[in-house]
Design goal:
Layout (H helix, E strand, L loop, with lengths): L1 H29 L20 E5 L10 E2 L4 E2 L4 E9 L2 E13 L8 E4 L3 E4 L5 E4 L4 E3 L4 E2 L4 E9 L2 E35 L2 E24 L2
Antiparallel strand pairs: 1-2, 1-4, 3-6, 4-5, 5-12, 6-7, 7-10, 8-9, 8-11, 11-12, 12-13
Length: 220
């Protein structure tokens, strides 16, 4: 009988210890720590959503910038900075469009984004890709790498001309140092009535301030 009671007590104690171990493991997880023997990382990061983001005000494109949803009409001289996100990979670039010729009664090129930028020109337009031959436009022209397109179209009382340049770029971190004029205060001591006293004085000096910033830099 005593042996049976001893066995029951041992089983009860073992079950109690096992339950405490499970509770401790649960507490570890609740406090953000892995239980003994675990592995992994509780930090969760998310990549930017696939898509194209761009700016026309000179700013660096981010996922908070305008998202591309429809062709961009190049109806004036523009500097477009873009960011293409695909499967976690980010590709930057700058497209500069210069408009010349008669700017009235004309149709304009359109910028289309796929995995690479494409230029759609008006019907009846001729273009030159780099130093290549002058070609009548038929289908959208891909802007791969450092690309320059010159285009023109002649019609009644209208001459349409322009230059489109695509420059691949990368995002770089930089530091800008500037000088700021500041007041430097000091105590000027003097003796009056047998006691030392002071008054606050200042002089102008310059202080260097470092500012971190980012910019798109053309790739070779």
């Amino acid at each position: 009988m005593k042996e049976k009671c001893g066995m029951l007590v041992a089983v009860f104690v073992a079950a109690l210890l096992l339950g405490m171990g499970q509770a401790a493991a649960t507490d570890d997880i609740m406090t953000g720590e892995l239980p003994t023997g675990g592995s992994g990382d509780f930090i969760v990061t998310s990549a930017p959503s696939d898509g194209v983001y761009y700016t026309i005000d000179g700013g660096i494109p981010t996922t908070n910038s305008t998202r591309y949803t429809a062709p961009i009409v190049l109806n004036r001289t523009l500097n477009i900075k873009y960011m293409i996100v695909k499967n976690g990979t980010i590709k930057y670039g700058i497209i500069h469009h210069t408009l010349t010729g008669n700017i009235t009664n004309r149709t304009y090129p359109q910028l289309i984004f796929n995995e690479t930028p494409l230029i759609q020109l008006p019907n009846g337009t001729y273009y030159q890709l780099g130093n290549g031959n002058i070609t009548p436009y038929t289908t959208p022209v891909a802007l791969t790498g450092n690309t320059i397109i010159k285009y023109f179209k002649n019609s009644t009382n209208t001459t349409q001309m322009g230059i489109i340049k695509n420059t691949p770029a990368r995002l770089v971190n930089k530091v800008k140092t500037s000088k700021v004029r500041v007041k430097k205060w000091y105590k000027k001591w003097y003796r009056r009535g047998g006691k030392w006293r002071y008054t606050w004085k200042y002089y102008w000096t310059y202080k260097q301030i470092k500012q971190n910033y980012q910019e798109l830099q053309a790739t070779a």
